[in-house]
Amino acid sequence: MKHEIAYLMSGRPHLPYLVASLWTLRNHWKGPVVVHAWEESFDIVESIAQDERLWGDDSIRVGYRVPAWRGRNAQFLDKIRMVMESDADVVLYLDADTTIHGDLTPLFDQAEKCGFCATQFCEWTTHGLAGNRIKRLKPYPEIPQDHVQAVLDDKLWPSVNGGVWAAKPSSPVLPDWYKWTDACKKDVFIADETVLHVCSSVFCPQGKMSILLGGAFNCSPMRFQPETLQDEDVRIRHFHGDSNVRPDKSPKGHKLWWPIWQECLEKNIGGCAGWKATDIGNKRMDKLQYAFRGDK
């Protein structure tokens, strides 16, 4: 079967994160990689993909994408559609704000088995913050409300995260996920992730979706890392909320990510030493660069 790892770059601010993610991915994956890019980031993504140090003799493929929707949650909708349109047998989608630290085979194996593999965010359940977000789906009749209520009632239902998942393009989860996200895209925060909880309630009992539990494949560098999950057992770090460039918010996240980025700069991976100085719009990162140079 043809397995593929895919990223989606919409705007430019997360381009440094993409470089760091690819730099760590190369140690744990030797198969095809495609970075889909919107117009505003396409030129730099092309330059990144030409660096053979990232992928040996084969360059990373770059896909030019025109989103069907421009507005709130646009990138979340587009990543679902791009996997549905893939010619691979199984696609592993990764957010750019991830770093890879171990074998990714279980994600592909589960997607092969049931069609869609989601990942639990650390050990979160639908009790608490995730549940409060899911409640916002109640005004939408397009979304099956019995399943909305089911994940709210079950306080131990695993909270899934939209930053790491694998699927067959033919999975029945994808069109429903897209349709239900599209219904609430203008009003619900991180609509795709919120809706993915409903998908898990619909499709897991049917054997058409599975969830990798425990956080090893979607681990926050903040205070949410499970006590039973050791650092050396984490396979995918997910630096959500810019926790990699916010040392005040996530000291551990910054401590883990910053050396990777400095290595990329020193080696000019993907030409990042040149384009980092251009206006990519990452204000938090700009402040850190100045601070570490001693500038005011």
Structure description:
With 296 residues, the chain is of the alpha/beta class. It has one domain: Alpha-Beta Complex (Spore Coat Polysaccharide Biosynthesis Protein SpsA, Chain A), CATH 3.90.550.10. Helices cover 40% and strands 17% of the residues. The strands form 2 sheets. It has a 7-stranded mixed β-sheet. The C terminus is likely disordered.
Radius of gyration: 19 Å
- Secondary structure category: alpha/beta
Mean pLDDT: 94
CATH-wise, what's the superfamily? Spore Coat Polysaccharide Biosynthesis Protein SpsA, Chain A
Amino- and carboxy-terminal Cα gap: 53 Å
**Adjacency order of strands in the biggest sheet:** 3-2-1-4-7-6-8
Q: How many helices in DSSP terms?
A: 12
Tally of individual domains = 1
Q: Architecture, according to CATH?
A: Alpha-Beta Complex
CATH fold label: Spore Coat Polysaccharide Biosynthesis Protein SpsA, Chain A
What about the largest sheet?
A: 7 strands, mixed
Please state roughly what percent of the residues sit in beta strands, choosing from under 5%, 5-15%, 15-25%, 25-35%, 35-45% or over 45%: 15-25%
Helical content, roughly? 40-55%
Shape category:
globular
CATH class: Alpha Beta
Compute the number of strand runs: 9
Extract low-pLDDT stretches: 292-296
Order of helices and strands: EHEHHEHEEHEHHEHHEEHHH
